[in-house]
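Quick review question:
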C-alpha cells in the first residue's frame, strides 16, 4: 500500500509523492511518472552516460531528476572510471518540488554529498540546448520515452528539429541517450534524419522475462565496434 507523502503543482501539472517500504513513486496528474520499484533502465542510462564519453573531464547534461537513480548510477560509474577527475554534471529538473523532495525524502544522503561539479537546477532541460553548447553526453529521461507525457512542451525534444538541436548541443563525438518502453521505429528514422547514428540496447525487465525496454544511443559519429563492445551495446 503506497502512502501519500506530498503534493505540489508544477506548471499546470499536479505532482504527488508516494512511499512504500522505503521506495518512492512520483505521479504526474495521477499518471505514474517514476516508480522506484523499477529502475533498471534509469540505472543503465546513468551507467552508459558514464562509460561512453572519451573525454577525461566530460560535461554531462541530465534532463529530469525524478527519483535520482540515473544520477546515482552515473556518479558511481564516473567515480570508478575517472576518479579523481571531477565530473561536470548539470541536472535540469523542471519541478522545484521534485528537487526539494529529493533532498528531504527520496535520497537526502546523496543530495547532501554531491561532488562539487554536480549542479541540480530547477529549469527546463530545453534551456540547456543550443548551438554554442558542447555536452559530451545528454541524457533525456523526462517522459519515459520519446513522447511528451510529462508536459506537452516536451514534444519539441523528439521531432526532427528538436533532435537536430540536441545534436548541435553535443561535442563532435557526443551522445544523446534515452530509453523507451517499446521500440519506436519512427523515432529512429527521425533521429537518423537529424544526423544521428543510432545504436540500441535491450534492457530486460526483472520478473518480466517476456518484456524489455529499449535504450537508444544517438551518436554524432558512428560508434566504433570497440566502443560498442566496451559498453555492451547490441548494434
Ligand atoms: C521519469 S522521471 C526521471 C527519472 C529519473 N531518470 C530517475 O532516475 O529517477 C522524469 C522527470 O523529468 C522531469 N521533467 C519533465 N519534463 C522536463 C523538462 N522539460 N525539463 C526538465 N525536467 C523535466 C519531471 O519533473 C520528472 O522529475
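Suggested answer, residue by residue:
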Amino acid at each position: 500500500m503506497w502512502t501519500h507523502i506530498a503534493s505540489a503543482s508544477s506548471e499546470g501539472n499536479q505532482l504527488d509523492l508516494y512511499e512504500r517500504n522505503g521506495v518512492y513513486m512520483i505521479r504526474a496528474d495521477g499518471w505514474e511518472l517514476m516508480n522506484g520499484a523499477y529502475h533498471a533502465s534509469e540505472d543503465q542510462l546513468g551507467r552508459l552516460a558514464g562509460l561512453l564519453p572519451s573525454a577525461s573531464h566530460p560535461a554531462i547534461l541530465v534532463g529530469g531528476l525524478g527519483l535520482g537513480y540515473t544520477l546515482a548510477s552515473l556518479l558511481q560509474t564516473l567515480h570508478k572510471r575517472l576518479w579523481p577527475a571531477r565530473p561536470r554534471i548539470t541536472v535540469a529538473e523542471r519541478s522545484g518540488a521534485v528537487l526539494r523532495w529529493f533532498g528531504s525524502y527520496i535520497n537526502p544522503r546523496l543530495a547532501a554529498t554531491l561532488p562539487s561539479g554536480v549542479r541540480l537546477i530547477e529549469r527546463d532541460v530545453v534551456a540547456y540546448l543550443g548551438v554554442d553548447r558542447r555536452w559530451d553526453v545528454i541524457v533525456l529521461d523526462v517522459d519515459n520515452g520519446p513522447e511528451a507525457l510529462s508536459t506537452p512542451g516536451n514534444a519539441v525534444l523528439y521531432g526532427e528539429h528538436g533532435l537536430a538541436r540536441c545534436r548541435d548541443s553535443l561535442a563532435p563525438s557526443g551522445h544523446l541517450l534515452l530509453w523507451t518502453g517499446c521500440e519506436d521505429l519512427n523515432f529512429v528514422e527521425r533521429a537518423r534524419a537529424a544526423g544521428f547514428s543510432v545504436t540500441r540496447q535491450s534492457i530486460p525487465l526483472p520478473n518480466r522475462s517476456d518484456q524489455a525496454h529499449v535504450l537508444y544511443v544517438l551518436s554524432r559519429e558512428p560508434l566504433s565496434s570497440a566502443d560498442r563492445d566496451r559498453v555492451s551495446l547490441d548494434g
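Why it works: The two ends are 41 Å apart (CA to CA). Residues 66 and 98 are 7 Å apart (CA to CA).
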